[in-house]
Amino acid sequence: MEVRLKILYTSLCHTDVYFWEAKGQNPLFPRIYGHEAGGIVESVGEGVTDLEPGDHVLPIFTGECKECAHCKSEESNMCDLLRINTDRGVMLSDGKSRFSIKGQPIYHFLGTSTFSEYTVVHVGCVAKINPLAPLDKVCVISCGISTGLGAMVNVAKPPKGSTVAVFGLGAVGLSAAEGARIAGASRIIGVDLNPNRFQEAKKFGVTEFVNPKDHNKPVQEVIAEMTNGGVDRSVECTGNVDAMISAFECVHDGWGVAVLVGVPHKDAVFKTHPINLLNERTLKGTFFGNYKPRSDIPSVVEKYMNKELEVEKFITHQVPFSEINKAFDYMLKGEGLRCIIRMEE
Ligand SMILES: [Zn+2]
Ligand SMILES: [Zn+2]
Predict the structure, then answer these.
(1) Which of 130, 156, 262, 316 fits as disulfide partner to 239, beta carbons 3.0 to 4.6 Å?
(2) Do the two domains 2-142+311-342 and 148-286 of this chain adopt the same fold?
(3) Distance CA 345, CA 341 (A)
């Protein structure tokens, strides 16, 4: 059930940097990072029937076995067998790595390890896409873009003409804003502590900006005043628990829905008064935009192909693989959104 991929383009996502820094987790080294990518199937292993050499694919950091209760549920994408596992550095079938150096294993990362010219991935973590889609663009759909987009269009589901707030204007938050634009929201309020992000965010349909630092009251109160009682939908993409609470408390009573996307600190606790829920506000969370990797991601690529979804505006840098460290520099400095790394010079 394994597939060997020739990676053509990959990009750097914040999760790679987080695990590379190995802060607060069990370090597992040496390891090949990378999980946002596009490539071509080079060969397939025993048991693989729905992919063949030459297929254009996006490897995905979480999977879809198509057989477990989650995969059979229309509501879930949390596959029992292949859901994200940040600690596992080996393949499921035999508990071994497919990479080595001088006889010593090099571990996998998120089942993808795309900072490599070739990688081996479980078939359940491979989305087969339209071969006409340019891989140097659609590779960004394999992680961050789908996470934010899906949180908005699949989970928050803003009605046409609604007012939406997005907390955190990095790549994930801006893809949530892109989802709100596609859904026809009329006001998109961006919330971020970094005013430099506001200019960029206008390209993604963000119409108004709130910097919590500019106000001496909670940001949920500021937003409630701006919107006559609260927004219709909010999506939180920072992982900061105070931002999560604000994102929930800024939705309108009666119908407002808040969706949590950012990954919080392991000791964080979400506190709010239960009356906020009794007053008919809904709090939800989502993982990978509720998309099933194999069944749904090809259709996100089609949204790009039919010009509904714009991905070019997320791509701010490009480097050859030999200069991959520049991509880390851009991310650490907070410059740009996505840096595409091309495997061939
Ligand atoms: Zn990612
Ligand atoms: Zn499954």
Answers:
(1) 262
(2) no
(3) 10
CA of 293 relative to ligand 2 center, distance in Å:
11
68 is catalytic: yes
Could you confirm whether 215 is annotated as catalytic? Answer: no
User: Which fold does the domain 2-142+311-342 belong to in CATH?
Assistant: Quinone Oxidoreductase; Chain A, domain 1 (3.90.180)
Domain parsing of the chain, residue ranges = 2-142+311-342, 148-286
Overall CATH class of domain 148-286: alpha beta
232-248 residue pLDDT tens: 999 999 999 999 999 99
One-letter amino acid at 257 equals V
Query: What is d(CA 70, CA 77) in angstroms, rounded to the nearest whole number?
Result: 6
Q: How far is CA 291 from the centre of its chain?
A: 10
- Rounded to 10 degrees, the C-alpha dihedral 244/248/250/255 comes to 160
**Model confidence pLDDT, tens digit, residues 106-158:** 999 999 999 999 999 999 999 999 999 999 999 999 999 999 999 999 999 99
Q: Which of 13, 125, 237, 250 is catalytic?
A: 13
Q: Which ligand is nearest to the CA of 60?
A: 1
Catalytic residue among 2, 31, 36, 281: 36
